[in-house]
Amino acid sequence: MANESWIPGYSPSTDFSLANIPFGIISTPEDSTPRPAIAIGDFALDLKTWLAEVNREKLTGIFSGVDIDQLNHALSQPTLNVFAALGRPVHKIVRKGLQDVLRKDTPHLQLLRDDDNVKAKTLRRLSEVTMHLPMEIGDYTDFYAGYHHAYAVGVMFRGPENALQPNYMHLPVGYHGRASSIVVDGTPIRRPVGQILLDPKAEPKQPVTGPTRKLDIELELGCFISKPNKMGESVDVNQAEEHIFGYVLLNDWSARDIQAWEYVPLGPFNGKNFGTTISAWVVLADALEPFKVKTEIENKTELQEYLKGHEEKTVFDIKLEVDLRTADGSMTTIGRTSSKYLMWSFPQMIAHHTLGGCPMRPGDLLGSGTISGPGGVEERGSLLEMTENGKKEVLLAGMNARTFLKDGDSITLRGFCADDGDGVRVGFGRCSGKIYGAAQR
Amino acid sequence: MANESWIPGYSPSTDFSLANIPFGIISTPEDSTPRPAIAIGDFALDLKTWLAEVNREKLTGIFSGVDIDQLNHALSQPTLNVFAALGRPVHKIVRKGLQDVLRKDTPHLQLLRDDDNVKAKTLRRLSEVTMHLPMEIGDYTDFYAGYHHAYAVGVMFRGPENALQPNYMHLPVGYHGRASSIVVDGTPIRRPVGQILLDPKAEPKQPVTGPTRKLDIELELGCFISKPNKMGESVDVNQAEEHIFGYVLLNDWSARDIQAWEYVPLGPFNGKNFGTTISAWVVLADALEPFKVKTEIENKTELQEYLKGHEEKTVFDIKLEVDLRTADGSMTTIGRTSSKYLMWSFPQMIAHHTLGGCPMRPGDLLGSGTISGPGGVEERGSLLEMTENGKKEVLLAGMNARTFLKDGDSITLRGFCADDGDGVRVGFGRCSGKIYGAAQR
């Protein structure tokens, strides 16, 4: 595929390259209706408006094999759920058709490139559009598939002998998260108030109520479901790819002190449900296909049949970074890792999640769990790990240091895949949020 | 209030009495569109159709203070979410107006009672309507507020000294459940397949994959949210009643063996997400108001401020029963208890859930946790407790016995409040489900 586009200022090394074509939901100052778009270079292409401008016969040519009425309907919704539900074969054709319209040597000159009227109506600088949640999220599940994170946290709380629970190597451990507090990139996050046990060793245990003192991040990859499964039916691990719409970055903000007191025996609750941020643009499964690799984590455990047998390359080598910006404006990259350190693949997570017949719906979101590398503090996806639960400071630019987040701090997750050979980059854009002060009580 | 209605065959001792007026979503053989209705005696009144038949001026009279356009809009939706969002003052007026139309001495004769045409269009026998999920459920949270259940299960697994975790008396412990697998009364439930550790003592621990051998029930009360709170803002415990739409019975089906292997450290997952059944008719908060009592569970712990201060009578004395019907048709009531054994009230659960700013939306569902009484096996809300995790059998009618559920078994939860003085009963109808065999593998 040619990697050049006629889009002004385009470079193949942008996150939103021709090889990417991520989908999102935008609105503009003139039209506050949220609607589907793709990102290309520094621009968003308003798909709803564009489809209405283009001759129907031409659309049939570009998106050969796709029902144009269905597509029009799907791409005039306020979320991407209906488009996701059309299924991966349709996503493939639509992505390819849009690449054909946007590439430098496009034969479809009049569809966009050479029609100034249509361009003016449909192409907008990303800096001028407002992004919305891309999907209506029915259910959100958060897994725990980042091996180095699970191990490091386990060592911290239970020592190296019992770091991982006995089930960890047998199944992708996960829990149900809170869908209502998932927000899009850029949404401010309020420091939560909660019950905290200040002295865990004192007896009797006496909590206090106040703002969390241990506000943390979790660097994760998110996966959106497209094709549903019926209640009572499971998804085969080898068919699970067909149930995936695409991927986003995900920051599972966590209040470690609230979590520590509440989580036994039923799992994390208020320590997590005050906010989860995802990046705005959904990178389609097909765009990430060239970056599949074998997981770096060797699991010597004999797997149960339903988790076995899918292809060797099951995870992605997405370079991931965590930036912390303090209120004084100084910025430090505090973590760098890769999603190749996930021990379980998303197809395995889907096979496990549906094993007992749990139905998944288009728009359901799966989080990978925190991703950390095998190295030192600079490869960690949470401050819990970087600071050994607050015991050591992370040094920042501008003479700053942190154990956990302060009010006014901003966190930005970034992620991209790069093929050094041809300079192609497929990236996720930003997943960011700024902390503001807790509610007065 | 007069307790007599002109509805054919009406008796004040029906679950769906004039003092109740529960809301649900019905469809009929002639019109498959799900639409709002109320239940009265053995009948459903199709509200969408009825509102369209009644003169607008008359509606303004009956529902004085309610915006009739808003009400029409809300009661022509396929779920009750929009109606719930109108808020408790509106629910109160609408319930009262409908009681006026339905009571024996109604002054509104032409609105329904004496108009055979309207009656034929809007009143249907309950046996002839199909019930649907009453709400679109965004998020489902399950609490653990049944003290005797939590204690009994704790003793079973950790002994009497450590039966309750240290946080139990300080906060309403809860976890995020799965919304996609919540189904309405009567929906069959498939026995789930999952990973099971057959011999928990053997090392190394080696699970197998197969149908659960420990399929259980959990007798719970469910609570639907009406008024939302914004992300970042909490709900005061004394204001929380205004955020409640109404109540249903809830059976949180559980696979104990799957749950036991998976739940450490992040909580229940596949052991629960294969199905949760709720009763079809939402009993409004106002209908239960006369049956409020002080909880039977004395908590001597000094509570955090945000959980304190709401009125003394905080839980309901709803008589609850669990019926088990085997495939041969014989039926046994295996459990009888009351919701007065909940230690935490729903207002306290809401105050805790939103303490850190978690947003709740109309249609969100809260489960109380399993409700058990202080007595013997006949007062328990789960087979886990009745059988001491499968060690003892529960004897049933027809020479049957069970530890956990077999394929072909049906469970029906029932619940009602009764005022012995005036014979008024406010009930929930059925919450039932029949088990069918696991998927072939």
Keywords:
homodimer; 11 helices; SH3 type barrels; alpha+beta; 441 residues; 5-stranded antiparallel beta sheet; 26% strand; 26 strands
In short:
Chains A, B: Ca(2+) binds at residues 142, 218, 220, 252. The structure is a homodimer of 441-residue chains. Chain A is α+β, with helices and mostly antiparallel strands.
Layout of strands and helices, then pairs:
The structure is a homodimer of 441-residue chains.
Chain A: E1 23-27, E2 35-40, E3 43-46, H1 47-53, H2 56-62, H3 68-74, H4 81-85, H5 88-102, H6 116-122, E4 123-125, E5 130-132, E6 140-143, H7 147-158, E7 174-176, E8 182-184, E9 189-190, E10 193-196, E11 208-211, E12 215-216, E13 219-225, E14 244-251, E15 254-255, H8 256-262, E16 276-278, E17 283-284, H9 285-288, E18 292-293, E19 315-316, E20 319-325, E21 331-338, H10 346-353, E22 365-367, H11 383-386, E23 394-396, E24 400-402, E25 410-419, E26 424-436
Parallel strand pairs in A: 6-22, 8-16, 9-26
Antiparallel strand pairs in A: 1-2, 1-5, 2-3, 3-4, 6-7, 10-11, 12-15, 13-14, 13-22, 14-16, 14-17, 18-19, 20-21, 20-25, 23-24, 25-26
